[in-house]
Amino acid sequence: MLSLPPLASVALDNGVARTPPMGWMTWERFRCTADGGDVAGGGASQPSCAEDPENCISERLVRQHAEIMARPEWRGAGYEYLNIDDCWENWSRSPGGKLAPNSTRFPHGMRALADYVHSLGLKLGTYNDMGTETCGGYPGECKDESCSLPGYMGVDAATYAGWGIDSLKMDGCHSVHTHGVLDPAYRCMGEALNRTGRPAKGEAPVNYTETAARCNMWRMYNDIQDSYESVSGIVDWVGDHAEANGMLAAQGPG
Asked: What pLDDT sits at residue 38?
């Protein structure tokens, strides 16, 4: 995380992200090792769990890494959030329109997984997409690519809260990529999360001022890769653009 100077900002006061949150996310290392097939933004076809069971996006993988992060050296350094990225869902919603984790890879369900992560003193995050599908092709938050509101946002926010989810990362595949479409949709999702009454850290790739009022974090640049060059490139981009694009003015506790 970058350390940025304090400036006046309009922050979401939902009790979380008062300091920069620290944690781990499945995507950088494990991508979409799940059901196989092509993944938008992944650059190549992803393996299936049958081909690569040790790296499968699954309940086993999340529990394994939760147990690592719960060790004193990680907790003492401030690591708290364990985040499941794309490819955790069933391929389709239930007949009632609700999301569900893949029943083979998450056999005990998301509520049981969240309870286990919480029992270790950690928090569980997950992922969805402001589009008709996630980047991996699983169900998204929108019913059409123009993201006609409210889509599935209200029912999904209630689902995440019922599972005990502490953080939600929102992506932006399979939708019309204009501020006129995405800004209102991300606002709607943030407001739906806040209405559940469960404090959950929201992350969205959107106008920084809008994000600061309704979510806790923003997506600002390309996916991080497994190299120093990727990390330094992101740092350089932020250093070059943070003031001009409004990021500095919007940052602050919450």
From this structure: 60
